[in-house]
Specification:
By secondary structure, this protein is an alpha+beta fold. Helices cover 26% and strands 37% of the residues. It has helices spanning 45-54, 69-73, 167-178, 181-207, 219-222, and strands spanning 20-25, 31-36, 59-62, 65-68, 78-83, 97-104, 110-122, 125-132, 135-147, 150-159, 214-217. The strands form two sheets. An eight-stranded antiparallel beta sheet has the order 1-2-10-9-8-7-6-5. The chain has a three-stranded mixed beta sheet with strand order 4-3-11. The longest helix has 27 residues, at 181-207. The two termini are 25 Å apart. The mean pLDDT is 89.
Length: 223
């Protein structure tokens, strides 16, 4: 399916200055990026748990146009998300794999095309792991908590190898070249934007979840 055109959705996106961010580097050279997001109003742990279970195959018809749910989540940056395993049925579960592609940065100068494994999916968190040649090269985790004001979300991305034959080569040589300060900031902004966008569409989509894998949302008539 085509990407939503620019301006197709008026989702309200937070800026990087509205989040708490921490960038650190471990002694072995791994890069760790942490984001504590502004509270996402109107969203709950139950909604996000459902979302990550279906976002690889869910289709959304919004005001008559049909889009992949992943592209609706961040129309500018998200390119595709699909299951990587040949046989599957129902929502995603830990152990399943997905292939994804996204681009980010002011001019979309940074990109990521990867096949990752789901290592956690419950109402308190979601986790993805990238494995290459038997080595874990990246871990992305979300933690969720319900509050009276909305959903508290924190994200942690760890890039690099904790052990194995390529640890020193990857962490000390390749990582400094792959993740400079500008790319790190661009990824953090991308992450803040996609999490904050939930407030604009997820409660409406979740309320229609009984429609199944193809959800119709006509904003003009349904609000």
């Amino acid at each position: 399916m085509e990407l939503p055109p620019p301006g197709a959705f008026d989702w309200s996106l937070r800026g990087l200055e509205e989040a708490e961010t921490v960038f650190t580097q471990s002694r072995d050279g791994r890069i760790i990026m942490e984001v504590r997001h502004p509270v996402v109003a109107g969203v709950t742990c139950e909604m996000v748990h459902w979302w990550f279970g279906v976002y690889a195959h869910l289709k959304l018809q919004i005001d008559g146009d049909v889009f992949d749910a992943f592209k609706v989540w961040h129309p500018r940056d998200h390119k595709y998300l699909r299951r990587a395993d040949a046989e599957w049925s129902g929502p995603l579960r830990p152990g399943d794999r997905v292939s994804l592609s996204e681009a980010y940065g002011p001019s979309q100068e940074y990109s990521n095309t990867e096949t990752v494994q789901i290592v956690r999916l419950d109402q308190q968190g979601f986790g993805l792991r990238a494995i290459r040649l038997g080595l874990t090269v990246a871990d992305l985790s979300y933690a969720f908590d319900d509050t009276p004001e909305g959903l508290e979300v924190s994200t942690r991305l760890c890039v690099g190898v904790a052990n194995g034959w390529a640890k020193t080569l990857i962490n000390q040589v390749f990582l400094p070249l792959l993740f400079d300060e500008k790319k790190t900031e661009a990824w953090m902004l991308h992450n803040v934007e996609e999490v904050s966008s939930w407030a604009s569409f997820l409660p409406e989509v979740f309320a229609r979840r009984e429609q199944g894998d193809f959800i119709v949302w006509d904003r003009d008539t349904e609000g």
